[in-house]
Amino acid sequence: VKNIAILTSGGDAPGMNAAIRSCTLAALHFGHNVYGFLHGFKGLLNNEFTALAEQDVRDIIHYGGTILKSARCPEFLDENKQQLAAENLTKLHIDALIVIGGDGSFCGMLALAEYYKGQLIALPGTIDNDVDGTDHTIGFATAVNTAIDAIDKIRDTADAFERVFVVEVMGRHSGFLALNIGIASGAEQVLTFENFQNPGVELQNIAEHIKLCKEKRGASSYLIVAAENLWPQGVEQLCIDLQAYANITCTPCILGYIQRGGSPVAKDRIMATKMGVAAVNAINADKSMIMIGEISGSINEIKITQAVKHKKQVNGELLMAQNSILDIAELAKINK
Ligand code: ATP
């Protein structure tokens, strides 16, 4: 029998509850005791925890957010705090800790491993999908769906007024969300980190593309999906720049936090459930310092060090598809 603790850290993601549920139920199934630490790494510092029983997690698979709460914990960068967390875990006789979070949280685990001698297992829970060793992170599929649902509505009003809209989506510093959302919403233009040149070149490209579209289609709606943190000073500034550069009027729209919330879609619920069970299996097999992922539908284990160090690349075929679809000039030639 082991004492297993779970925490969620960093940005919350739909499906984290499904992961908490499956870790807990699988651990109980094998006769372990389960504890949930609250507010991410803060809970480790403050000894904020609760025992988790079947009735605590029975009915949470369909909820967004996380019942264990999440937090950013900048003080965890301090070695004294990492040591304190390890001491607290040891005093409570916690044999294994499962952390559900993004690559920042995994850095926290690596730091903790310097002082904590129990098992450490990571589950990738972030809407950004920027974690190596897994095709998708828990929450990504739901965030894409939430965004396209919102953008479909924006398209309706953009169509009615034949307007240009720039929609900013999340993704920190990677383009998984922007590219997938852009493709799924049929956006005319997607601005991602992966194919962004510089603001001057991009401004010219966007303006030319909007004008080409207008020539070819007549007045119509035009949607740009842009990754956050990409355009200097944000998408409002991009609209100002387009007006100044080419007299193009466009409306900015920042989707913001709605992308993080909501009931998880089936894919996130199922993947999180599989990963949670795999985490407990790994603990039973005395493994440590690994992240559980899913590649081509099968469970995949990688070292946490690799998940942190290696930057996952956006699928090249997706980028190619997007570039081909957007190149109206080339399409016009083919049509002739
Ligand atoms: P998301 O990308 O979805 O927001 P994340 O896990 O990457 O998730 P971060 O805010 O980057 O989110 O990290 C979560 C927490 O992990 C931080 O608040 C901090 O407590 C801890 N952490 C991050 N980097 C380190 C580090 N280098 N050393 C120790 N702890 C860290």
Question: How does this structure look, described?
Answer:
The chain contains 13 helices and eleven strands. The longest helix has 22 residues, at 140-161. Helix 1 (16-29) runs parallel beside helix 10, helix 4 packs across helix 5 (103-113) and helix 8 crosses helix 9 (234-246). The protein is 46% helix and 17% strand. By secondary structure, it is an alpha/beta fold. The strands form two sheets. Strands 3-2-1-4-5-10-11 form a seven-stranded mixed β-sheet, sandwiched between helices. The protein has a four-stranded parallel β-sheet with strand order 7-8-6-9, sandwiched between helices. The structure holds adenosine-5'-triphosphate. Residues 9-11, 41, 72-74, 76-77, 101-105, 107-108, 111, 126, 128, 172 line the site of adenosine-5'-triphosphate.
